[in-house]
What does this fold into?
Amino acid sequence: MKQVPGRLPRGFTLIEVLIALLIVALGTGAALMALNSAADNTSRMRDRTFAEWIGFNQISATRLAATMPTEGVTSGDIEDYASVRWHWQQEITQISLPGIYRITVKVRHADGTNDNDALWLANVTGFRGDAVAPGNGEQPNWNGSPQNPGQRAGGPPDDPAPGGNSPRNDGTPGMGAGQPDTPKPPAGG
It folds into this structure.
């Protein structure tokens, strides 16, 4: 504010008011840009989340199918999921382990017309196997400590003699290697 000697201050000059308005306008513009960016990020994350759900649903459907999948690429569309049309592409490949297949599903909006990798919103991977073997009675070694042959994880060594009385992991006596553990009748009963 400019002050003339002997006069009372009368207010802001036009230049001062215009500079103040310019500062407010720049601050408001920056705040609106930040809000717009946050809204775009929220929308993009929403779409990516839905795309991942669609991919995981497709992997689950493939895993739950009665027959083993065949190697190759398949694709399809979902008409209305969260009010959007989606396109998925599934690739099934055999990995180096026999009987295990890798299932990779990519998902994008259905309005994309080409196969550009930038358009895929989600890329999820799962596995399906057909090699299920019967249990051999050994417990997995979860703590990573070395395990002696003939010793169950977390327990004492097994008695190699059939019919021997070796303790099991839970502390109850077992029948020994090679024979099923059967409960003994209660004493005195």
Observations:
- The chain is about 25% helix and 20% strand.
- The helical segments are 14-64.
